[in-house]
Amino acid sequence: MSVGDVVYAAYARRVARQLKPAGIPRHVGVMLDGNRRWAKERGGSTAQGHQAGADNIANLLSWCEEIGVEVVTLWLLSTDNLARPAGELRPLLGIIERAVTDLADAGRWRIHPVGALDLLPVETAQVLKAAADSTRDVDGMLVNVAVGYGGRREIADAVRSLLQEHARAGTTIEELAEVLDVEHIAEHLYTKGQPDPDLVIRTSGEQRLGGFLLWQSAHSEFYFCEAYWPAFRKVDFLRALRAYGERRRRFGA
């Protein structure tokens, strides 16, 4: 082990000791950003960047598991990304399919796809559904894999599902309008039944949500990290937790 490794490990332990149990988030959302830029700076291909990012996912989940996080949401592919050239999109989908399969095969986490699966290629949607089915009874951390995900699309899908449900029950639009509130819509989101994210982390230095968990993140705390996702380390994660623990959450007040 090099001197740098020793110093890094010591610093990570020091940051970990500064975390308070009461300041551990139940649900962490992560925008895994910067794969292409990471690869470009190293003279690699876009696919190599996405693969390096995929290889870092299990590390993150292990860190979350270690400190007691209950739910993690990983944004792997947006609805906007589906418009990318086929030469880039198909390899990326293949990387995502293998990554999700590997997470399911680990048998440690319960996989839950969130996104518009109907927009995805059939084989990709099948892989996501198979991962969910094979881990349904796993007694471990819940991992939402957001593929073909967009916050506006999620809200539109939730409203559509709500209207269809009431139409089947014979409720008129006028009757629904009289009782409709935010909880009715929340019950039809991709993450229904889950706690909203306490902390949302975005890597790569970008400071915007881009449509990630638009509804659920109304009261979330945000942490923007300069590191590209493939280079995101445990100490970066611990710093995010430390910053979260130091904040006074107001929940909109």
From TrEMBL:
Cofactor annotation: Mg(2+)
SUPFAM superfamilies per record: Undecaprenyl diphosphate synthase
Cofactor mode of binding and number, as noted: Binds 2 magnesium ions per subunit.
Active site residues per record: D33, N81
Gene Ontology cellular-component annotations: plasma membrane
GO term, biological process aspect, one: polyprenol biosynthetic process
Entry keyword Magnesium: yes
Enzyme Commission number(s) of this protein: 2.5.1.-
List of residues binding Mg(2+): D33, E221
A GO MF label: Z-farnesyl diphosphate synthase activity
Binding site for substrate: G34, N35, R36, R37, W38, H50, S78, T79, D80, R84, R202
Keywords, ordered alphabetically: Magnesium, Metal-binding, Transferase
Enzyme class: transferase
UniProt record similarity statement: Belongs to the UPP synthase family. Z-FPP synthase subfamily.
Description of how the protein assembles with itself and partners: Homodimer.
Described purpose of this protein according to its UniProt entry: Catalyzes the condensation of isopentenyl diphosphate (IPP) with allylic pyrophosphates generating different type of terpenoids.
Protein name: Isoprenyl transferase
Gene: uppS
